[in-house]
Amino acid sequence: MYPEVTGVITITPELFSPDNDGYNDVLTINLEFTTTDNVVNIEIYDNRGRRIKELKDSYYVGNTALITWDGSTDDNTKAEIGTYVILISVLEADGSRSEYKEVCVVGGKL
């Protein structure tokens, strides 16, 4: 069994409102790994466990990256107000693999 990739993943802001008002319109995912040559897959799931967005697929990030989500879904509609899980799978060149889960909230006017 290979060791896990180690690193720190942060999301800002945890509550964002993709309504183009110029304030917290996008979510930023900051990836910082201790290894290089990392490839990530990033998927976003709603609170019912349905995948609504494949943000990155086999995306090379090295050891750091900033990735944004504008609140859109795979069918190019705006994600509904609610809680979402961001699943980040990381694969390093030697086969090391890790998964991270982060939570965010899409807000807006009701």
Q: Measured on Cα atoms, how large is the radius of gyration? A: 14 Å
Kindly state the percentage of residues in helix: under 10%
Q: Helix count?
A: 0
The CATH first-level class comes to Mainly Beta
In the sheet with the most strands, the strands line up as 2-8-7-4-5
**Quick one: overall form?**
elongated
- Structure classification: mainly beta
Q: Summarize the biggest pleated sheet.
A: 5 strands, mixed
Sequence stretches where pLDDT stays below 50 over 5 or more residues:
none
Number of beta strands: 8
Can you characterise this structure?
The protein is an all-beta fold and 110 residues long. The chain has a single domain, classed as Sandwich (Immunoglobulin-like), CATH 2.60.40. It is built from no helices and 8 strands. The protein has strands at residues 7-12, 15-16, 27-33, 38-45, 51-62, 64-69, 82-91, 97-106. The strands form 2 sheets. The protein has a 5-stranded mixed sheet with strand order 2-8-7-4-5, with no helix packed on it.
Topology of this protein?
Layout: E1 7-12, E2 15-16, E3 27-33, E4 38-45, E5 51-62, E6 64-69, E7 82-91, E8 97-106
Parallel strand pairs: 2-8
Antiparallel strand pairs: 1-3, 3-6, 4-5, 4-7, 7-8
Give a brief rundown of this model.
By secondary structure, this protein is an all-beta fold. It is built from no helices and eight strands.
Considering the chains and any ligands shown, give keywords for the structure.
5-stranded mixed β-sheet; 3-stranded antiparallel β-sheet; 110 residues; 8 strands; single chain; mainly beta; Immunoglobulin-like
